[in-house]
Write a sequence for this structure.
């Protein structure tokens, strides 16, 4: 009885008339995904692609007074290749932000690990407290470090008072190390959150299983915890590396002559020097470099993960 | 601690905060024994197993394995391996690497490892699955891989937390056979957690029946079935008919009991019940369905009672007649195989007699 009626139903009922759009929506997974994504895609299109296109076009022009010579030329890129100042600054920027990224991730990983595995109550409170430095404005944080690292700053006067040093440590302020320290602190929140999420997601029974199969704490960390938290490490690293490479506020305030970065140069091109095409070309070179480094970084981490597990 | 005991659990207690998960358990498990922990959900089976593996430490008491006290031995140095209830398959490794995980320490040549893993994959009926990712597996497949991952290390003790729970009947029976065979040939001591009484009965040398963090009875499958110590154990394993009764007289090895619905009967004083019963004690009389014999006429037996066939319960390979009896508000189940030879099937509603032997009766405390 029931079987028959179930079989008969589709034939007896005419399929309801639905319009093309809702039929598509119900049938096609891809279509549905794009429908959901479309507001974001539209926004991205306008807010990223168009400025980017303008930047690309601009980079092939040259400045003439306050206007542009719209003739296509590779002169800007050639200059970047040939004049050592650009390469030096680019190289230094990458180095500084790599160091800042490494320090931040190394500092934040234990904190995130602690909260994920050893805090059982009020985890959210801990996380919010760790992102506290992020609650003040970026500029304030930079100035705070200026106070801490300055010649008469907290560290130097403290060390002098204790008697460990006679002269203030010069390398603390107006140097690449000042920039690295400040960047690492300023961007910590960006590292803690993805690291915490990826560590928190790890099923505790996996750790027990690894222990049960004979791994001590260290071996277990490298074979299970680290590989499983790798997505967090990668996103934390990229989240810090990308913005710090192009940062210009911190190097401008704390970097001194040796701490200048490519971001300062780009800012100058669009500002005082008034060479927008050169600034655009620099920005594009910087972006491509970052993209290449990130791709290489992701590939290498996955390769390493394969090897160590 | 008895001489051949390999694992000795002595007065172990476990509190989670103020909640008592294990209440003073002592037992010995022999070398090469297939030992099962049987009990309802939440009775502390996993907790006890985790204490053996070293993931929880007893609040009180001590666990010995191979005569070594285990309280200061971390999990990765214990001669035990565990198959987790949640499988705990490493998601970033493929099946081969999961199974080979524990071999890393032994520094075997790669070919040897592959050979051992392939052997294991055959054993769990998943050949050619070595390259599968962990997230491409069904629950039952994960479970078998978790089993293989522990078995490949040939531990002295294998702790299994419901390792066959997600398998269908056929595969389950096949794996049970494999496990039993493996356990016999390799001589691994198995501590096997299950809430499936049938599984525990078919596999185990001995079973500890647990409830609320306590061991109610520790016995062989036959012992549990034939001589349950209380109503919980009796009803947990197989079907059991219960009758209220009062001890009318005690005379050495036998008890005279006035049982509701059955009349005056005699029963052996339950040897596994140390308490003993005395005249006037309120007791519970228990008889298994297959120990009851049905007949149409009043049988020529020492103990018999009459009733009506009320229904038939079909249970697959066996069936139970449900007999209604005067003075009882519950049915009495009788195995349908146990007809007097030559008797035909009974009609619903027909008057019948049941009879039994005195030694079929188990006397339990009433609470
Ligand atoms: N870490 C813990 N903290 C607090 N209580 C716990 C903890 N682990 C287990 N319990 C409690 O201890 C009791 C026994 O748990 P256990 O996991 O041993 O049960 P089980 O017999 O394995 O049950 P199941 O058959 O459902 O797996 C349960 O009531 C459980 O709530
Ligand atoms: Mg359990």
């Amino acid at each position: 009885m029931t079987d028959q009626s179930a079989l008969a139903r589709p034939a007896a009922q005419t399929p309801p008339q639905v319009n093309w759009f809702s039929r598509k929506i119900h049938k096609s997974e891809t279509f549905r995904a794009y429908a959901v994504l479309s507001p974001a895609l539209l926004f991205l299109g306008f807010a990223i692609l168009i400025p980017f296109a303008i930047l690309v076009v601009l980079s092939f022009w040259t400045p003439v007074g306050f206007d542009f010579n719209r003739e296509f030329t590779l002169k800007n890129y050639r200059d970047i290749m040939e004049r050592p100042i650009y390469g030096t600054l680019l190289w230094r920027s990458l180095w500084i932000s790599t160091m800042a990224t490494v320090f931040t991730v190394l500092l934040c990983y234990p904190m995130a690990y602690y909260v994920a595995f050893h805090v059982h109550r009020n985890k959210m409170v801990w996380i919010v407290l760790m992102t506290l430095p992020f609650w003040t404005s970026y500029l304030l944080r930079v100035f705070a470090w200026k106070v801490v690292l300055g010649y008469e700053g907290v560290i130097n006067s403290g060390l002098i008072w204790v008697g460990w040093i006679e002269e203030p440590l010069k390398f603390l302020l107006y140097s690449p190390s000042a920039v690295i320290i400040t960047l690492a602190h300023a961007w910590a929140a960006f590292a803690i959150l993805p690291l915490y999420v990826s560590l928190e997601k790890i099923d505790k029974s996996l750790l027990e299983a690894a222990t049960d199969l004979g791994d001590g704490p260290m071996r277990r960390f490298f074979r299970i915890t680290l590989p499983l938290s790798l997505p967090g490490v990668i996103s934390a690293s990229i989240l810090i590396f990308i913005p710090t490479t192009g940062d210009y506020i911190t190097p401008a305030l704390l970097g001194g002559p040796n701490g200048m970065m490519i971001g300062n140069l780009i800012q100058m091109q669009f500002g005082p020097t008034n060479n927008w095409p050169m600034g655009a070309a620099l920005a594009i070179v910087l972006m491509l470099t970052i993209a290449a480094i990130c791709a290489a970084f992701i590939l290498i981490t996955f390769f390493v993960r394969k090897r160590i597990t | 601690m008895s001489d051949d005991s390999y694992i000795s659990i002595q007065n172990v207690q476990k509190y989670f905060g103020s909640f008592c998960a294990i209440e003073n358990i002592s037992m010995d498990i022999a070398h090469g024994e297939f030992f099962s922990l049987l009990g309802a959900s939440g009775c502390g089976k996993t907790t006890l197993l985790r204490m053996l593996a070293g993931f929880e430490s007893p609040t009180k008491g001590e666990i010995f394995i191979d005569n070594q006290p285990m309280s200061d031995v971390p999990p990765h140095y214990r001669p035990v391996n565990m198959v987790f209830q949640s499988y705990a398959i490493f998601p970033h490794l493929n099946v081969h690497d999961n199974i080979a995980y524990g071999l890393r320490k032994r520094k075997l040549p790669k070919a040897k490892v592959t050979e051992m893993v392939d052997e294991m994959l055959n054993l769990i009926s998943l050949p050619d699955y070595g390259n599968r990712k962990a997230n491409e597996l069904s629950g039952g497949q994960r479970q078998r891989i978790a089993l293989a991952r522990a078995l490949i290390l040939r531990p002295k003790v294998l702790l299994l937390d419901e390792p066959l729970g997600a398998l269908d009947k056929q595969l389950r029976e096949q794996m049970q056979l494999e496990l039993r065979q493996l356990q016999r040939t390799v001589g691994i001591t198995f501590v096997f957690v299950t809430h499936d009484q049938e599984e525990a009965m078919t596999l185990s040398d001995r079973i500890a029946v647990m409830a609320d963090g306590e061991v109610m009875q520790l016995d062989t499958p036959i012992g549990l079935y034939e001589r349950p110590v209380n109503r919980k154990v009796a009803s947990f394993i197989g079907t059991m008919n219960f009758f209220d009764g009062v001890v009318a007289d005690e005379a050495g090895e036998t008890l005279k009991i006035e049982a509701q619905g059955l009349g005056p009967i005699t029963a052996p004083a339950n040897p596994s019940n140390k308490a003993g019963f005395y005249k006037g004690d309120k007791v519970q009389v228990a008889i298994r369905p297959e120990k009851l014999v049905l007949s149409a006429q009043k049988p020529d037996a020492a103990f018999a009672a009459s009733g009506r066939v009320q229904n038939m319960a079909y249970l697959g390979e066996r069936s139970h007649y449900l007999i209604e009896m005067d003075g009882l508000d519950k049915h009495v189940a009788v195995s349908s195989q146990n007809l007097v030879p030559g008797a035909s099937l009974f009609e619903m509603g027909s008057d019948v007699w049941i009879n039994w032997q005195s030694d079929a009766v188990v006397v339990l405390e009433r609470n």
In short: Residues 239-365 of chain B form a domain with the OB fold (Dihydrolipoamide Acetyltransferase, E2P) fold (CATH 2.40.50.100).
